[in-house]
What does this fold into?
Amino acid sequence: MKEQLQEIKEQATAAVKSCDDAKELDALRVKYLGKKGELTAILKSMGSLSAEERPVMGQLANQVRQTLEAAITAKGEALKAAGLEKKLRQEALDVTMPGKQRPLGVRHPLNIVLDELKEIFRGMGYTVVDGPEVEQTKYVFDMLNTLEGHPAREEQDTFYITDDILLRTQTSSVQIRTMLKNKPPIAIISPGRVYRSDAVDATHSPIFHQCEGLVIDKKITFGDLKGTLEVFAKRLYGEDVKLRFRPHHFPYTEPSAEVDLQCFKCGGKGCPLCKGEGWIEMLGSGQVHPQVLINCGIDPREYSGFAFGIGLERIAMMRYNIDDMRLLYENDRRFLVQFR
Ligand code: DAH
It folds into this structure.
């Protein structure tokens, strides 16, 4: 029996030593120390021993039991510690590792000038409003004093959805929407996309951007328009900028003017950019036609106003010396990163 005990001790100790898994260790515990375990079996058979042998063997068996219990407990703890160590190592965060580079995008030149434009007009007390691009003909033309058959309507050929719904050709439609919704005093700008069936070239695109402006109040004069546009141009292009008001016709303004900016490239002498003119057209403007006020329920004897429509592409092109409008739409990174 002594040999048996010795053998169990050796076998079990070796098995516990080489065990590297908690489940396996538990199986060993059952195998040797469990109710039906090998050591227990020996203890049970102790009855057949003589009275002298019994205490000796009993003591030995208990020693073996204690040794095994201690070995299993120690191994259990070691396995637990190793497991934690492993987990920590797997989940470790290497703070010295180089991060992933996320390149910062840049604002599009059109957005840069638009943001500046909004800033300038907000500074003068204007509100920025929005209007739909799919619009009714009555807002784009009729109520702007441009009835069916008017030549100005034919000039702005566009994309019709139905006979009286179209992609707007001008942001001027927002003038009407604004006057129908709000009572004077009114001072708004409304930037947005407009559409015309124009072929693409260096200065034309079927989709482009405008910014409309409208001021309605008592005693608003053409002088207010001129002063406003001068402040605007100087803030945008610098104090030296020169403006030229050229008489024009728009059905919704009277008098009307197109406003030119002295060519930034040649300083007015005439060059290919300004087509030898020395001036570059920047916007259309005028005093709001009394009929337009009447159409919107505003009494022209009490109120007057001015309006203007700025081509945003043109502003950006002049600002950054861009000679081809297509560059603004191609989204070529090499072009865009220059505006960082
Ligand atoms: N809507 C005109 C265009 O697209 C620009 C314009 C001219 C807007 C005169 C106005 C204005 O508000 O008063 O060419």
